Amino acid sequence: MESDAQRFDRYVDAISDELGHADRVAPFRAYCTGLLLPGERKSVEPLAARVGPTSVRKTHQSLHHFVSTSSWDDQAVLLRVGQLAIPVLEAREPVRSWIVDDTGIPKKGKHSVGVAHQYCGQLGKQANCQVAVSLSIANTFASLPIAYRLYLPQPWIDDTEKRAATGVPDNIGFATKQQISLGQIRGALAAGIPAGVITADAAYGNDTNFRDQLSNLNLAYAVNIQGTTTVWRPEEAPLAPPPRRGRGKVPIRLQRTAEQRPISAEVFAHELPPSAFVDITWREGTKAPLRSRFAALRVRPAHRDTLRSAPRDHEWLLIEWPQEEKTPTKYWLSTMDESTLLRTLVETVKLRWRIERDYQELKQELGLAQYEGRGWRGFHHHATLCIAAYGFLLIDQGGFSPSGGRRLQLAQPALPDNFRPRGSAK
Fold it and tell me: Whole-model pTM?
């Protein structure tokens, strides 16, 4: 029977071709080993002490160069990790969803690449932080990020001094989070990753163009929207363009009237009878089964459809209205097939909890948020290495989420008695 170390070596060997040069394999193995070993901090200095305690300075130089300067391709490594994990995931269940998300990394200083005062999901408020957009593959058992890119606010794009100081590539221009996500999705399609239903929170789902682009890629989605999003009642639609009058241009845009106009998803939910809502249990929670009331109806989204010449197609409007609440709490639009069962719709949108578990594990156990460098390349290399380590854990757990799994038995040299990593408790 193979040991943990032997399986890990085989995993590293399977990724090594994506690193570009043979001399990068050893620091890749060492860095990921340091991330997987127990330890309070997972930045470069304590990693070096953990994997090379008798030659900390030399090991630190090697790992620092590998993560901050070496020019290997992050996306190639992430896709390879995904390709290795997919057969293990699909042995339990096919890929069901591609989860779009972004995560905030709080920062105290102002000089790390991409840092700005912006919304930080980890803190639930505006704060000084970096924000990265990710794409993950998921099924009921586990999920894994396969793309990860830093969002750069417009002031960073315009600041040539900051760009130069942090090594932002010249070809990186401003892109919204939605545009970054669409690029990641196109890359996954080009790489042949098994497609799943796109799930995303309202920051993406509210964007009509984002949803339209997914449809143009022939991808189904089930995305969160705000209750203010407008829809047509199931039996209603915008009016056809009026006939031409005289010699003017032929009208081509849809019409509305005071009597025939769309309503918000929230208003529509309040119009539904109580019998429209069904109790659904979608999975077991840590203390009790997770259940709520849901309704799903076929509607036409209405946003800016007066600029169109044809009505939008019908899609699902899914509404969650817990028994104890006075108003619905969540809404989704989905282009999943018309025959899709209500339970399947609910299970699909609720798969997004997996990315929260991923980020918790990546940040708390593997040090995703602990990189201390300031540069573009180092930020992405460190994240890629954390995800690669996470991918090994997922594969080693046989396709189950690594959270709560057994501790790996990897060789760990003893640390010097006087070693104290920066940022640790005195």
Answer: 0.92
